[in-house]
Write a structure and sequence with these properties.
Layout lengths: L2 H24 L2 H20 L12 H32 L34 H14 L6 H8 L3 H13 L3 E6 L2 E6 L8
Antiparallel strand pairs: 1-2
Helix pairs in contact: 4-6, 5-6
């Protein structure tokens, strides 16, 4: 590829991504996240733990159809958004961690290379992933969180969350607790905390 072709490609991609970001921001995409998270919490609780009222999904077929419609629509929306999120996750690796950093690997906390030939490499752990998991563990306090809870609350893929947890446990920031066959993680300084 010629240098001018690469420059044109980079310029066009930057313009397209800037437009996409601007349209999402103008449309309130970022601000809507909290409302949709609350909506999901409420609807899932209503569906999984129906109350004593007679309009539950077991007694009202229209309510059950409503839940099914929400699930189908949400699945279609997820199908539209997930490929974009996957692409953006890949492209985010191009950003340096701080001004002056040389390239995408500057953000890595640990190596992503396999330990031996034929072994699949673990996802690279970024400072951002560790910070995200650390913030979630701080919010959870002494309750701690399992990998699945952290994935739900942070939006991180399980491999990334697990790699971040390994880094946090490895440096002594977090520790593990096994309770009832479930492994959870919590910050070291909250282990003995009361609250």
């Amino acid at each position: 590829m010629t240098e001018s072709h690469v420059a044109s490609s980079v310029e066009a991609a930057a313009l397209a991504l800037d437009r996409l970001e601007q349209s999402l921001r103008v449309g309130g995409f970022a601000e809507g996240t909290t409302a949709y998270q609350r909506m999901a919490d409420v609807l899932l609780a209503q569906r999984l733990f129906p109350g004593d009222d007679s309009a539950g999904p077991e007694t009202d077929p229209s309510v059950l159809r409503g839940f099914e419609h929400i699930g189908e629509t949400s699945g279609r929306i997820y199908g539209l958004l997930e490929p974009y999120a996957a692409v953006m996750r890949r492209l985010a690796a191009l950003a340096p961690a701080a001004p002056g950093d040389a390239g995408p690997t500057a953000r890595s906390v640990g190596p992503a290379a396999p330990a031996e030939p034929g072994v699949t490499a673990a996802p690279a752990v970024t400072e951002a992933a560790c910070a995200t998991v650390l913030a979630a563990l701080r919010r959870r306090g002494r309750r701690g969180a399992s990998v699945s809870v952290l994935c739900r609350t942070t939006g991180l893929p399980s491999g990334v969350a697990e790699a971040a947890l390994d880094a946090l446990v490895g440096d002594g920031t977090a520790c593990t607790r096994d309770a009832g066959g479930v492994r959870s993680f919590l910050l070291r300084d909250t282990r003995g905390a009361r609250g």
